[in-house]
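Handout, section B. The chain below has 367 residues.
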Amino acid sequence: MNTAPPAPTATTAPLAGFTVAVTAARRAEELGALLRRKGAHVISAPALRIVPLSDDQRLASVSEQLARHPADIIVVTTGIGFRGWVEACETWGTADPLLEGMRTSRLLARGPKAKGAIRAAGLTEEWSPPSESSAEVLDHLLAQGVQGLRVAVQLHGEPLHDFTAALRLAGAEVVEVPVYRWTQPEDTAPLDRLIEATTTGGVDAITFTSAPAAAGLLTRAHTTGHQTDLVRALRGDVLAMCVGPVTARPLINHDIPTLWPQRARIGAQVRALAEELPARFPTLSVAGHRLRLRGHAVLVDGTVHTLSPTLMRLMRALARKPGQVLDRTHLLTCLGEDADAHAVETAVARLRTALGDAAIIQTVVKR
């Protein structure tokens, strides 16, 4: 069996040499494709499963109630949720009276996807926040006043306790519309492998497109006894890239540093990751070459040289102190407990070969 590393290849892809995980349940293929176009090696491990409530009596009952007695205001939080709501009512034969009732309601869309779903149903939204944030929707409602009004809130996978509580405190009658819910994946093996890879240095960044996905990863790690190691990795070298601040909340609650783009779009998320992740790794000028370190590779003058985990640890140790001499004892810590001085010589020789120019790493006799 051939276990040789891939042949060096020239690239300008900003994420070449990085391993990026996708935790999304929806649009995972689209997000993975965008990351691969940027050069990333992608691991897909859904952290949740969307369970439609088309057969749920709560949804049927709420829909019938709103058809008979339309709400003054309807808050649509997600496009997929609103479409799922209408489709479920179509199976019960109640979609037409529900939509007719909605024509008398003021419709607020949390973002463009929700707005698109409203218009696809033949309706028109009254307002949508520039930030696509539930908090801004709430501020808008409270500023307008909701005393004595019936406000229907389409939930998006989990209860919006703070949102609905604030409306009730302001005097509104709140009708919660539970269109779908989140649960753990039926097959948790990919998620378990992702947690292991993250805690052992095999992942450079994890992308999150929903708060339930972030919470789902942490919950699974807790269930399997690896939450402490996972949180440590996410507070350290592994970048948590979220699609927006709402998605980041479960991570922030664990004091995990998070980043997100200005616009809550997966395209913007990928662009932000492609800028941020390479900037975290050093670029060195060595022996007439330009070296750029990556998660599992080194770019030498724009050519990707993929390295094994052991050689990558050795390379990082050398790159942390460029131009300085590191003794064998120091380098032994990169090779594992069973390594000896001969193993250091062998690993350095392999690293020289992998980088393509022996002059990049020099041996200083007796030091």
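Note. The mean pLDDT is 89. Compare this with the example in section A.
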